[in-house]
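quick one, 184 residues, struct below
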Amino acid sequence: MESLRILGVDPGLARLGFGIIERGPGDSLHHVAHGCIETGADTPLPERLRHLFRQLTELCCTYQPAVMVVEELFFNRNATTAFTVGQARGVALLAGAEAGLAVAEYTPMQVKQAVTGYGRADKRQVQEMVRLLLRLTSVPKPDDAADALAVAIAHAHAGRIGELEAKLALGKRTGWVWERGRFR
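---
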């Protein structure tokens, strides 16, 4: 099996976390890099968004991932925060599309489920599983980078399941296309 390099993104305007992993033979996971892209609160919004875009574009050029995975938004309290994070998230999606990457998205619950086996795991449990799965000596810091690595791991696990499901579906094809009401 060919290796797959995955760029995970935990979107944020002040601090956008990124984590890069590689899924290798036997579904092994390998840490490549992680960190945060930060923007200053006193910087105008368009400049902050441009900085995020340029840094993500540079990461794509440097590490050559095949997939960018972005965590979906989940906010139920502060609408203003949701809007600014949504703008950063949009920039991340654009950077992935512009780099020609496959782009996937997962909810926080899907990420927790894929990484810990429990969709309501707390942040500490997720971070410890990231450390264990990537065979790191300590939990990745800052938290945003650890979250981005978790998003990438979720795709590594879910992506493999999707590949297997696609192979199984190929063997079960009848030739009938229900939407068009005819045989293929």
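Residues 86 and 183 are 43 Å apart (CA to CA).
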